[in-house]
Amino acid sequence: MRKISFLHTADLHIDTPFKGLGHLPEPIFHIIKDSTFQSFERIVGLAIEKQVDFIIISGDLYDGANRSLKAQLFLKTQFQRLENEGIDVFVIHGNHDHLAGEYVKLTWPDNVHFFSCKEPDMIPFEKDGEILAHLYGYSFPKQTVTENISSKYKKVDGAAFHIALLHGTSGGSTDHHTYAPFMLNELKNQPFDYWALGHIHKREELSHYPHVIYPGNIQGLNRKESGKKGCYLVEMTKAETTLTFLDSSTVRWESESLSTPHSDTVDELIDQLLLVKEKFRATEVNTILSIELSGESPILQSLYENDKLDDLLDHLQEGEEVEEPFVWVNRIKAEPIDTDVQKHLGSSGFMKEIFTIFEEMEKVDSVLEPLLKHKKAKKFLDDDSFEDEEILEEAKRLLIESMALQSER
Prior knowledge:
By secondary structure, the chain is an alpha/beta fold. It folds into three domains: 245 residues, Purple Acid Phosphatase, chain A, domain 2 (4-Layer Sandwich), CATH 3.60.21.10; 87 residues, no CATH class; 70 residues, no CATH class. The chain has eleven helices and 15 strands. The strands form three sheets. It has a six-stranded mixed beta sheet with strand order 4-3-2-1-11-12, with helices on one face. The protein is elongated.
């Protein structure tokens, strides 16, 4: 029976700078900064271990179009490892690593196949003298591709399996900027066995008949991209297709909600927090952890009102730079205020108007988007510069809590 196996991966974002984390202890920041490299190296190791036929990379190999020579040489070394094992690599470029960037051009190993940026094209995969699969793909010639590229993919007969690579946005998704948009039914109605998607950093299996799959990115880049990250092992026969998720995370972003109604002393609260840390350390994966405290505990209320949460955070971070794996508590958020008070505030006309203003502020990236396209300004900005609303969230929280405290007096 004819069969193929491959790893489907996307959104490597090699050499992500991890802006805003430079305040971390140097050993921890070094691990985080190197995490995208290490995660892809793990994926290459998995490909060799599983003895797959090829790897698919559905766009955004690099974090920026002006990819560094360091990042390119790293990928070339990893691709050479795969060539030595007889494993092919099929690549499309996406909006982050589009082909209009300024970068040093390298010669790539013969096992690496890049798809055209002019029109979607087909590249055959051959094994033991037989063409087993036709792979189809399209690379972004520039950052902004807003047309429906998927409609231009055309099946070419002559292979048992037909696999399409696409970097784009499924209709209705608002998690990322819209590029190469498509509707799910459009892909399902086309004669392909597997759509290997990229761009959305969240793992999603949109369809199984045929398979339309987002593997997510290989390494979380911020606290919104929490949990396990990695790739799919795909094994196909004419009768069935099986998917197995493989974790490649070097550092995981995680969050934990902790209710503290019975914490009567700071010591008891710290003991609870240390148990949370050890739970994540037991995963044996480096972790950046956000903790949200809630409840009507007097000690939590006292810490909050006396602005002592930062002291608590410092205590939880102490010594983590020498731990393996580390569990770095990057953020403690406390909500000690009665939820009934918050609901009451939310029903008032004044607060409804305030919440509407916050919602409009959260759309600030759409206002600033023209700057990202400006030839000079874009050197100092990137898409991710406006994706972290932490300051906005904190302002919103402080306002609600201040109003709540006023209403209790």
